[in-house]
Design a protein that fits this description.
The chain has 267 residues and is an alpha+beta fold. The protein contains five helices and 13 strands. It has two domains: 1-30; 32-73 and 125-252, Lipoprotein localisation LolA/LolB/LppX (outer membrane lipoprotein receptor (LolB), chain A, Clam). The chain has helices at residues 3-29, 32-41, 133-137, 142-145, 260-263, and strands spanning 47-58, 61-72, 81-88, 96-100, 103-108, 113-116, 146-155, 159-167, 177-183, 192-201, 204-219, 222-232, 239-249.
Length: 267
Amino acid sequence: MGIVSRRRLASLAVAALVTTAVPARAEERCSGDQVVQALEDLFRADGQVAQIEMRVVRPQSTRTLRMRFWFVKAGQGGEDRALAQVEAPAAERGVASLRLGNKMWSFVPSTGRVQQVPESMMLGSWMGSDWTNDDLVKDSSLRDDYSIQGCKLIDLDGPAYEIDLRPRKGREVVWDRIVASVRRGGENDMMPLKQDFYSRRAGELVLARSMEFSDFRELGGRRLPARMTLQPSGRPGHRTEVRYLSIEFGADIPDRIFSLGNLQRAR
């Protein structure tokens, strides 16, 4: 076989590889909607009951809480409801937060009083962690509140998608940009790896905090990240780690759970 023939065959082989590879890559590059939907569906359920452990790490101390959460997703025109109550340590048992729609109340047993959290305090720390009260009240939908500005393939300890989300016009959201990295797996194995949250300051988008996901396992009949670590930007030695101990999806939760009276009663 002559040199020209070998080169011709090589060219044809390369062309065949390109022809078969490009459609698959193009399909992956255009899968932003599928990735967002996978993130939305990860914890979606009408009723949830979960037990978590939260570690609040500071440069000079570490504080660990064990809590139970009840959550009900509202139907059309209704309001989401959530209750978080501390079970341990004993010194903080019974400390609780209740969310009804966009309103929030707190209860501290040592004071014996239920107090509504004022709007001016919504950006304050929740339970002394790096989460804010506003995080519990705001229930943004990535699909409804954000538009996909970009989706690309990256290597993040393995193949992953990275999607760039910006607020849709007219939507009231906390973050002006979210960059989410998601592991590329099968249809039921798109696990979140990291999310970076940006806010606009003096006209510039600035990284405010990052969330990392790990310890993927079966919980409540689903494969989920059992651990989430929230790291505020520009605050070395500060982070909050949340670990799911158990979770039940589709739980039938009575309305009385989400009452101001129940807020004062330790479960």
